Amino acid sequence: MSAHSIIRPGRDSDAGGFIALIGTCWAQYPGVHLDVDGEEPELRTLATYYAEQGGALWAAEAGGAVVGMIATRKLGDTGAWEICRVYVHPARHGDGLGHRLLDTAEAYAIAAGATRLKLWSDTRFDRAHRFYEKRSYVRSGPIRVLADACHSLEFAYAKPVNGVEVLDAAAAASAEPLLCAILTTCVAEGAGVSFLPPLAPDTASAFWRRIAKDVAAGRRVLLAAWAEGVLSGTVTLAFASAENQPHRAEVEKLLVHPDARRHGLARVLMQRLEAEALRAGRKLVTLDTRAGDRAEWLYRSTGWQEVGRIPGFALLADGTPDATVFFWKRLTG
Q1: How many domains is the chain partitioned into structurally?
Q2: Whether pTM exceeds 0.90
Q3: Is the domain of 17 the same as that of 145?
Q4: Which of 69, 73, 273, 278 is the most exposed place for a label (fewest CB within 10 A)?
Q5: Angstrom distances, CA of residue 48 to CA of 9, 42, 53, 88, 206
Q6: Are 43 and 36 in contact (CB under 8 A)?
Q7: What gap in Å lies between CA 326 and CA 308, rounded to an integer?
Q8: Within this chain, do residues 131 and 184 fall inside the same structural domain, yes or no?
Q9: What is the C-alpha to C-alpha distance for residues 303 and 144, in angstroms, rounded to an integer?
Q10: What CATH number is associated with residue 146?
Q11: Are residues 88 and 194 in the same domain?
């Protein structure tokens, strides 16, 4: 099934093709079967179903057959839109059709005013989870239980179009590949964040897994930033554990992917981090950065006070000693 595919608006007359496609996709997973008339009657007139909800439906067609589909619909007045019915024929996996379909649905929702995108995926659909995570969706909220014959459980995935969100441990785990990519890229560019290039993939993964563990234990807050639907930045707030420092926290690993710089992401991340510190009762925050790093100007311009600097505190990739600047800030509110 290698014929070129076109993506067009879905029609009620595509019902047979949609049903066959979903049945083929579900057949790859034991215990998952499609009962159209008993549980999914809307498949008979799916274009009408989504049009009545103010949404839209698309079909990918190749050689006269439906080889992919996707839909989207508005969720109330919250600015959230749901991405629905994402299916690609197994013979077309890996050829980019899934990305083209998701691009189409996301663009439609965003043009219609979406500020947040959400979807549900059966807990058994591992391949789909990796695809959504590659597209900057992260786990969001509890598992949904469906009252169907397949005993389905579903993960929720979501992302803001633009903005910063706190990641819980499940979201941190699902975001790990993209967080690793951001960290690895920033380290390769010489960011002074404790690592030296080239950063091994296992080292990056181990770091973010430790962060997720600390998030689960309440020892850290992890923030992530999205720009145009792409997870592009992150920062961590580590709570001081000493008995006499319940008021203090430390800023760690402010990172913005080079492709998303000069759009204010670092500033927005720091603003949200300060709000989260206050929410946790931490009114004194500290951080350090390599002298002359691009982040130094940001900290100075947003009210951080320099304590001083230590020459040769860290080494560059070539072994050259480099100075580190220490900052503090008292938060009010």
Answers
A1: 2
A2: yes
A3: yes
A4: 278
A5: 12, 9, 9, 21, 48
A6: yes
A7: 6
A8: no
A9: 44
A10: 3.40.630.30
A11: no
Q: 97 lies in a domain?
A: yes
Position 2 scores a pLDDT of 55
User: Six-digit token pair at 308?
Assistant: 């001083």
Question: Which pair of tokens denotes residue 70?
Answer: 């996707």
- What token pair was written down for 124? 């058994």
In this predicted model, what pLDDT tens digit does every residue of 156-209 receive, in sequence order? Answer: 999 999 999 999 999 999 999 999 999 999 999 988 889 999 999 999 999 999
Residue 136 lies in a domain: yes
Domain residues for 182? Answer: 163-330
Q: Which long-range contacts (CB under 8 A, 24 or more apart) does 292-297 make?
A: 293/191, 293/192, 295/254, 295/266, 296/325
Residue range 263-286, pLDDT digits in tens: 899 999 999 999 999 999 999 999
Q: Is there a single domain that holds both residue 153 and residue 189?
A: no
* CA–CA distances in Å: residue 238 to residues 118, 141, 177: 29, 23, 21
Q: Which two tokens stand for residue 178?
A: 């993209």
Q: Which of 138, 159, 180 is the last residue of a domain?
A: 159
* 63-100 pLDDT per residue, tens: 999 999 999 999 999 999 999 999 999 999 999 999 99
Q: Tell me, yes or no, whether 1 lies in a domain.
A: no
Helix ranges, the chain (H): 15-26, 36-39, 46-51, 97-111, 126-134, 169-174, 176-188, 201-217, 265-279, 294-301
Query: Is residue 88 in a domain?
Result: yes
